[in-house]
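Appendix B: a complete holo record

For completeness, this appendix reproduces one full record from the ligand-bound portion of the collection. The bound molecule is pyridoxal-5'-phosphate. The inputs are the chain sequence and the ligand SMILES; the output is the full three-dimensional arrangement of the complex, encoded as structure tokens. No fields have been trimmed.
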Amino acid sequence: MTGKILVTRSSMPEYEEYCEEIRDLWETHWLTNMGAKHKQFQADLKSYLGVENIDLLTNGHMALELSIQAMNLHGEVITTPFTFASTTHAIVRNGLEPVFCDIDPVDFTMDASKIESLITDKTCAIVPVHVYGNVCNIEEIQRIADKYSLKVIYDAAHTFGVKYKGKSTADYGDASCFSFHATKVFNTIEGGAVCFHDQDFGLNLYRLKNFGIRGPEVVDGVGANAKMNEFCAAMGICNLRHLEAEIEKRKLVVERYRSHLDSIDGLQLNPVQKDVDANYSYFPVVFNEKVFGASRNEVFNALADNGIGARKYFYPLTNTFDCFHGRYDEHKTPTALHMSKRVLTLPLYADLSLEDVDRICDVVLKTAKKTSVRIADMIR
Ligand SMILES: *Cc1c(COP(=O)(O)O)cnc(C)c1O
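The structure of the chain with pyridoxal-5'-phosphate bound, as generated:
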């Protein structure tokens, strides 16, 4: 038996490559506030993503929170509870009311067919999430947004590197927010970015990430501080050079997982979406206890006993968080509730060895056997 396996492992460039990238900073002493690295990284991202406009921020959360703020919204926002805390918090921290839409049972993203029934005269925006790198029903969401004049702000934290119909997902919606956190497919240690089309929105966002400062003597917005620093931008410049190779390695890991788990009854894997170039960001498995012979929690515990980290992602749903106690009813999003109790994301990173994937799958599959033996014992 080999060592511990964590659920993820951050991608890093070679030490020398990063040192070379930050060398100029010792000459300029310009460490933050939109310096040379920030400018270069922004340009690199524009060309990689094929977008016209992108701004860089400290993290994915501030990308979301300030994007929402930059739109001057009031009222209700339709969103999903099957996401990371950040999505819901970004809405609530803006003084807006989240209205939770249920999810699609196959791809885990917002069920677009349920959006219209949640729209009221207070609805101002839709905040969907491309969960596990699965692309939302972009066309239907945009159709609804256009019909009711709603803004669309995508939480695209999971989709860096994903293309839909040959185009980056960054191009869709009024704003598309990425996270470059250490645990993501592509990282800048901590970091985030927003892609957008409207120049006024871009200017608002730029000011909000720098205290609302318009000019040397004019502060006309109550902004925050969410500027990406030069060291993070330099990390991004380096990591972007290796992104395609990293995604290729992730693909091999995912294929190995599938070779073991695809045909097992009682397991639901991530769908292969039509017209989508995937980034292989996560490997979620939904356990149907009765059919498979073990529950999500039993598998989680068995993996932990073997030194393997898995993550109950996303559990609990954001509409059941303690900080929102009594405010929302999770039974209004039954599919999300069902999935959150049964899903587990297995370890996945570019350098995860295929032998480790074999070992992980072995533990998962043996958990089922043990349980069925136990049931057989009980029947006897
Ligand atoms: C990681 C993540 C965020 C937040 O990004 P940070 O860079 O960690 O602030 C937001 N939404 C989702 C779905 C995420 O996975």
